[in-house]
Amino acid sequence: MTIQTIIDQTFDAQKKAFLSGKTADVSTRLTLLERFKRVILEHKQEIYQALDSDLGKTPDIIDMAEIGAVTEEIDVMLENLATWTVDEVFPLTGAFEGSEGRIRAEPYGVVYIIGPFNYPFNLTLTPLIGAIAAGNTAILKPSESTPATSAVIKKVVEKTFDADIVTVIEGGRTENEILLAKPFDFFFFTGSPNVGKIVMKAAADQLAPVVLELGGKCPVVVFEDADSDLLVERLAFTKFLNSGQTCVAPDYLLVPTSIKSSVIEKLINTLRRDYEGKNIGKVVSERQIEKLAGYLEKTRGRVLLGGDYQENSRQFSATVVSDVEWDDALMQDEIFGPILPIITYDDLATVRKNIIEHHEKPLALYVFSRNEQAALDFISTIQSGDAQINDALTHAMCPQLPFGGIGPSGMGKYHGKTSFDIYSHKRSIRTVKA
């Protein structure tokens, strides 16, 4: 049987199941989510092994950023879904006084979810949870760059769901092109802006809604009054987690000239103590290793730490580069690796101008300052998907906070209640009493 035939039959089966009302009942959705969590936890060891093989992730990181992120999202749905699915009913006023309004959350239909390689378990399955909670069926395509994790995702899904509710299609460009040509009711993509444009065109052909979770160079702006110990602690963890392969990782650091020396000294000391010579995970491919090495060959900045790599084992050391300018090779594209460029500044207004000019609308903006209002004021002058004060990256793991980009960093948000909402068509119903 050809892959075209498999995809055609899978899509048709899911459409039929959806139209039959198989996923309509809220108790059915809750049962599926409960079973999903149980199956995931039963396969923890296999998930550990897969993510270690693909990306060199350790169990503590997997528990936090992969398995834990998924199960916490399920818990939020289990706790709240019965409330979220109740119709909102209210009396209408004005010219419509005497009649009743009703807003009902209804599923869209068959959803196509395309997962990325960097957090392949989390970022493939967390979008699925919202789709199931809202009553949709779904076809998933995990990243072909993380084959071991793709295989375990397929196994966990098949042990949880009937194929006409959720199916995993493994593969690469060929499979994706066939899938994108199907008349899905909703598209969800996490990955690069270039592929995001292709997905958006496919969604446009179907006049279907789309969520794009992309990326961008996320700046860290340090104010003169920042707690430098806190800055270094959070920066070291969030920049080098998963070898820097996180879409909301700090991409570059902006430090006032007045505190540059002390911040760099503390950062280098911390990295030498905790990261130098240690495995911080695997870069996804030898090709990406070569790309990162190319940045270091071209940069005019000064490499203060790291720069070492091993292509065969896909290891790249935690690297810090100072004296970087805005037109440097390191400042052209999202780095997506364990290299931290440092730019010094004297004027916040110039910082704002350069961020907007060079990296408009990043996925996240980070500000470190003891003055919360000053930080909020600065954040309000720069558009970004999301922002944090005195931390980085972690907002993307919080089910209570909608997560997503804007413009080149993406469109649409998800997590928690927002996930249920994006996958639900809010249908208005007016009743005139007979």
TrEMBL record:
Domain Aldehyde dehydrogenase: residue ranges: 7-427
Matches recorded under Pfam families: Aldedh (PF00171)
UniProtKB keywords: Oxidoreductase
InterPro entries: Ald_DH/histidinol_DH (IPR016161), Ald_DH_C (IPR016163), Ald_DH_CS_CYS (IPR016160), Ald_DH_N (IPR016162), Aldehyde_DH_dom (IPR015590), Aldehyde_DH_NAD(P) (IPR012394), BenzalDHMdlD (IPR054920)
Entry-linked PROSITE patterns: ALDEHYDE_DEHYDR_CYS
Domain of life: Bacteria
Family, as annotated: Belongs to the aldehyde dehydrogenase family.
Protein name, as recorded: Aldehyde dehydrogenase
Protein source organism: Rosenbergiella australiborealis
